[in-house]
Amino acid sequence: MVQVFLTVDTEIWPASSAIFTAPENSVVPSLEGAISTYLDGKTPSGSYGVPFQLDVLQRYGLRATYFVEPLFSRVAGRQHLVRLVKLIQDAGQEVQLHVHPEWIRLARLPGPSPEVRLLLREHSEEDQASIIGLAAEVLHDAGARDLIAFRAGSYGANRATLRALVKNDIRLDTSLNISHLGSACDIRTPERVLQPTVIEGVREIPITCFADRPGRLRPLQPCACSAQEMEAVLLRAAQSGWRSVVIVLHSVELLRRTSDMAVTGIGRPSSIVIHRFERLCRFLSEHRDLFRTVTFYEVDDTLFRDAPSPPALRSNVARTAWRYVEQVATRFV
Predict the structure, then answer these.
(1) Burial level of 251, CB count in 10 A (0-12/13-18/19+)?
(2) Which residues contact 241 (CB under 8 A, 6 or more apart)?
């Protein structure tokens, strides 16, 4: 049986990234609109953010892990983070740690240099350990239970990040995204890592990627894959003896991102991605003989046993072509 990790990067972004580089005495614009859209998913036709996702997961009896970025709360207000953590945990789902270091300077946290760096791996190992520790403290103080797993914002981790996690007693990581190696992600390994392994003393559970055409890798993510691609890749993983599959979503995944939604607090639903998400959940629920959704609390050493590397996952031209058709349709639906 394949252990499936449904993971949701849960974060907010301001209307303009200029606030991250503004002078320290500048007035920070309100983030209420960003919270309304990125977390609650408000649209004119209903809300499709974290509460909606949790309802769908409960309907199909699935487990998920929300990787929550907590540093925004030092700017927007602690109450938003407390509400978010309570909402997720009361729904029986898991909260783990996600960090975007862009917030460090605005959050006025002690320790690392206030210079804005977009990726965690751009900091020294010592500063990475400090940033992770500070973020974990903020998230824990908001009510999060034992924090044992981590994902770097934008997958911006390197091997120093993993050593920094060990310094903070976090022994599980899922930042490795082989489709982003050489760009944001820099967790270098001698061979391509497809399944759980141990790197720098950390148990790494890589994000699942598949080839949608020769030389091109794509992460398994509803906004990036058609429903047919996701189902075919999952079935292929089960047939090929994969031990785990990691699917990535975002708290704002089901909305069409628009330039003004963080200001107005109202976004636009993406009906195609909403359909993909609900169909994925139904598929996993209907194939419990092949797939078991799990949280990082449930991980044990058997997941990291030595075993031959399974074959890479691939889609086919027809399914990829259908995704292109859907992408065109999203401009109008």
Answers:
(1) buried
(2) 307, 310
